[in-house]
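During the second year of the project, the team shifted from modelling isolated chains to modelling whole assemblies. The rationale, set out in the original proposal, was that interfaces cannot be judged from single-chain predictions alone. As a representative example for this report, we include one of the complexes processed in the last quarter. Its constituent sequences, exactly as entered into the pipeline, are reproduced here:
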Amino acid sequence: MTSVSIDSARAQLLGSEFRRSYGWLTGAMQRLVGSRHDAEDLAASAFTELALVDDIAVVRQPRALLTTIGRRLTWEFWRRRDLERDYLAQLALTPGHWHASPEDVCMAVEELVRIDAALAGLSARAREAFILSQYEELGYAEIAARLGVSVSMVRKYIAQALLACCGNA
Amino acid sequence: MSTDATGLAWRQAVEWEARLRDGQAAADAGIDNDGLRDFARWYAASASHAQAWDALQERLARLGGRTGATLSGGGPDAAMAAALRAPSDERRSALRAAFGLLVVGVGAWGARAGYHQLGLDADWRGAVGQRGRATLADGTAMAYDADSRIYLQSGTGAAGTASLHLQRGQLLLTPGALGASAPLTVATAHGVVQADGAEFTVGRLHGRSVVAVRSGSAMVRPEGHAALRLQAGQACYFNRNGARASDLSFAAVSGWTRGVHVADRAPLAELLDVFDRYRPGMLRASDSAAARLVSGVFRLHDIDAALRQVAEALPVTVTRYGRYLTVLR
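Output from the structure prediction step:
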């Protein structure tokens, strides 16, 4: 019973906030990302995240929270766009013949975004060591020489990156 | 409790992956023999260990790259690497400043594109399991074996001399139709091969390199030893201990261009080095197995069959740990 009333209070709160702020947030997003369509997507995502906040009633300034969420989403949106663009540009530059279907590219970019986020917490060297080992298949000795660190340090970097990328059991 | 144990098994699996991933580093750290036994013991010690290892390998396969999820060419891996190097911090601060960010983005992008363009012009790399072809500036045709690494050395040798560094794998050079006369050198970790309008193959194998000449002649200069001349039809092995003539024909040494590897009393380690480049995952051998001599013709498109062939010919056992790590003892 109580949960229903709380849920309906939540829904009411979210509904009124949505009516009050959706247009405002979409406009703010559009100034950042340029496209109306993308801005609407981002604003909708921001409201979806707002709806996941447990104690919505105690959020005193929903617009401030929406702005914070919106900024992070915009950053992620840009990051994804960068990753996708660099990925496609490199594919196009690669001599030979790799023809990717849109589905392949979409899946690869999803994975890329996931790995990028997982590596975000690592040092620049650990990140580079992982890229060199995983995608350029360099040996540890060569990675160590390039980064100016010891081979055992490279091994530690790789272990750090693997833990980050492959998550916990 | 059980989650602690699972977490520990997971961290140990990651640690093993980091130790075994690099063959050379593993060998230097004495992993090849004792370490593999330690690994086998760890893997067998608990179901949670085996589960953690197999789960880790599955997740690694999804990352692409060396675990061979993408066998369809160097493209996707290079693209993953390039994209993951995309700088991000300027964007984050630009979000606060909200201005001038386009300039930063475009500038960084231009520099990266140029860098990669240069990198791609300068070296060749075959994907695991895929042979490749290229044409050098002087018209010489180059075929290279799966997972080979070849660098074009700039600023070395006399003008007009193409100088290649074969870091890994094998290559076959055929003079262009115009009969290019510029000398070509191919360096490996074991020495240098120089030829002038010859058709020849060079392979960087485990512990030694091989060269065979089909037409023309080539000079072989093992590191720290006197040079010797190879005529058409001759082949030899060389490393820092000098050169040793081989009875193998050019056709046998260049068998990789037709998808076969021919071994004549070659150490098993050498075979595994070749097989490794044809199949995702790791092939490792104990010291005693690695040193065993093996002869035969092995088909490279089916490495599992080739390994069965090895197991029939030699007293070695083949153990698989998940899809990824195979150990011969």
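Chain B has eleven helices and 18 strands. Residues 101-122 of chain B form the longest helix (22 residues).
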